[in-house]
Specification:
The protein is an all-alpha fold and 243 residues long. It has 2 domains: 2-90; 106-226, no CATH class. It is 58% helix and 0% strand. The chain has 14 helices and no strands. It has helices at residues 2-16, 23-39, 56-62, 64-68, 71-77, 83-90, 106-117, 129-139, 148-156, 160-167, 171-185, 193-207, 213-218, 220-226. The chain is globular, with a radius of gyration of 18 Å.
Length: 243
């Protein structure tokens, strides 16, 4: 009940009071609500059966865009105590440990990038390129508690075109999200582990029947990380036909 009421109050603030200059409180509330939404992931897996394959926690984290795209709020945040967090959403954060212990080998990342680059060339925009660039930077460093803001910013800044690919349950988009979930689960904060593994297993279950050897190879890291067993069945809904 309290979560629902706080979400309603937050949404009302974004829609009707966004120019009030309450940026710091809005961003802090957004982070708390995103965490609460993500915690409910194991309980809300059946939600997808209702028709929308986009998990509620993705929609919740995307709410930060409204804050960052409002000039008055963004200006306030850039001079607030939350500036280190804001830099992750702006893509201007600089880390001093880019060469820490990576989660996967460079070969796996290269294979994922090559698979996502298939069918695209200089004349056809690759909708995965910018998302993969951000994912690669996260996966080539050691997953520590200090990196959690970067993980949240990854979802919050997903382009609408990529969100639409997730809605269509496109294989490459789902693989990228599975890698993010698997990576996040390694941080093992109190609100991340079970939910990240549950979402990762859900994606692995959907992709497991795919006969493409490339897909099967790319599934090894997320499947092993989240404890997925190949005999599981598909759990995501079937997208509506064009007819």
């Amino acid at each position: 009940m309290h979560y629902t009421r706080s979400l309603q109050a937050y949404s009302t603030e974004l829609v009707y009071e966004v120019e009030k200059g309450n940026a710091t409180a809005l961003l802090a509330a957004s982070g708390l609500l995103a965490k609460l939404s993500f915690i409910n992931t194991p309980l809300m897996s059946a939600e997808a059966a209702g028709g929308d394959p986009i998990p509620a926690w993705i929609r919740s984290m995307q709410g930060v865009k409204t804050i960052m795209q409002t000039p008055k709020l963004r200006q306030e945040l850039e001079s607030s105590m939350l500036l280190p967090i804001v830099r992750h959403y702006k893509g201007t954060a600089v880390d001093d440990d880019e060469f820490g212990d990576s989660q996967v080998s460079d070969g796996v990342i290269v294979a994922l990038k090559e698979y996502c680059a298939a069918d695209f060339n200089y004349y056809v925009l690759n909708p995965y390129a910018s998302v993969l660039a951000r994912l690669e930077r996260m996966m080539l460093i050691e997953p520590t508690h200090e990196k959690i803001d970067r993980y949240l910013a990854f979802i919050a800044t997903l382009e609408p075109s990529f969100i639409e690919l997730l809605r269509q349950m496109e294989t490459r988009a789902l693989l990228i999200l599975a890698y993010w979930c698997a990576s996040l689960s390694l941080i093992q904060q109190w609100w991340t582990g079970p939910s990240a593994r549950a979402e990762c297993r859900r994606i692995c279950a959907f992709l497991a029947p795919n006969p493409d050897p490339a897909v099967q190879g790319l599934l090894k890291f997320p499947a092993a990380t989240c404890g997925f067993e190949a005999e599981s069945t598909r759990q995501l809904p079937t997208p509506p036909s064009d007819g």
